[in-house]
Write a structure and sequence with these properties.
CATH topology of one domain: OB fold (Dihydrolipoamide Acetyltransferase, E2P)
CATH class of one domain: Mainly Beta
Distance between the termini: 154 Å
Order of helices and strands: HHEEEEEEE
Number of helices: 2
Structural class: alpha+beta
CATH superfamily of one domain: Nucleic acid-binding proteins
Shape: elongated
Largest sheet: 5 strands, mixed, barrel
CATH architecture of one domain: Beta Barrel
Length: about 170
């Protein structure tokens, strides 16, 4: 005779599964019986004056008038940067092979990205440069970059004689 395929352990597992299913049905029926109703009023949630969620409607006497234009949602608007002015800086880093670098402005110590397309002449690290700023995808970019022209020093005129060292024969 062949043995039954259902073992004791399989029978116990099946009993537990059936029992769980019945308990789940009972809980669902209890929830339905005890629910206040599924109307819109029971689903409403309000925000009180402190920003907390509550199920009681707000007090109309504490209502404040808010101007929608004053609300900032997400990233704040960028400040307008003054008109194109020539700025002075020093090349902090420049990679000739990749064609980009960074310029540190002398006045504010801010660093700005520079691309080889924004150069008017070749630059190298530690060069003093003049540049203008332009809004890029990820921030301000330096454009119209050229080496700063050193102010010419006036030539020393040695032709004027010093009255103390000159001897005049009269």
């Amino acid at each position: 005779m062949a043995k039954s395929q259902e073992t004791f352990n399989k029978k116990e597992k099946e009993k537990k599964r059936i029992k769980k299913r019945e308990e789940k049905k009972k809980k669902a029926e209890e929830r339905r019986a005890n629910s206040k109703g599924s109307g819109l009023e029971n689903m409403m949630v309000y925000v009180d004056e402190n920003g907390r969620l509550t199920d009681t409607p707000p007090d109309p006497t504490k209502k404040k008038k808010i101007i929608a234009e004053n609300l900032e949602i997400g990233v704040p608007k960028r400040e307008k940067i003054e008109a194109m002015t020539v700025r002075k800086g020093r090349v902090e880093f420049f990679n000739d092979s990749k064609g980009y670098g960074f310029i540190k402005e002398l006045d504010t110590d801010e660093k700005f990205f520079v691309h080889v397309n924004g150069l008017l002449e070749e630059i190298a690290e530690n060069d003093k440069v003049t540049f203008e700023l332009e809004q890029g995808l990820k921030g301000m970019n330096a454009v119209q970059v050229k080496k700063a022209v050193k102010a010419p020093t006036p030539p020393v005129d040695n032709s004027t004689e010093n009255p103390e060292t000159s001897s005049s024969e009269e």
